[in-house]
Predict the 3D structure of the following.
Amino acid sequence: MTRPPAPSGPDWPAAALAVAGLAVSAYLTWTKWSGATALFCETGSGCDVVQASRYAMVLGVPTAAWGVGLYAVIGGLALAGLSPRRWVWAYALAVAGVAFSGYLTWISLVELGAVCPYCLADAAIAAVLLGWLLARRPAPTGRRAATRRSRVIAIGVAAAVVTVVFGMGVFAAGSPTGASAYQESLARHLTASGAIFYGAYW
């Protein structure tokens, strides 16, 4: 199969996908920072459980905010034109986005027992964006070209492994223990069951 030549202008489909991902990530970031409930997500729903969990923050910043930065960079690269070098950066970032989205989806299903439609939409956008970039991989211009198949595979595997290991390390370091772990589990259970606290202070 003949690889497409390096584009001389903006890659509009990649830029559009990046803007779509940025919009979803920005909305989730806003709801996390403002404490608002996402549209069409009721209290105690999957969205609410995921956004209220400790996995919604990475290094003191909403997890979705990292997606905003990632999509912004990919969008900028796409608008600048995906030369082989810019394509490699966009590809590596897209792989990182897909890997982290997959990891978070696994956490939400296995550990939280909840599904966030917005998170799934964001993950789907990242996957489509990665697929588009792979389809648009520039033809290698030499044996040492970064867009050769073997190097593309190596870059993708490295980006995915580093991203997931980094995420696991961050979440493990911030893992609650003892009473705090119990409190978090209790809070998740009460939220999911729709329990309401009634009390009075005198």
Remarks:
- Residues 84-112 form the longest helix (29 residues).
- The chain is about 70% helix and 0% strand.
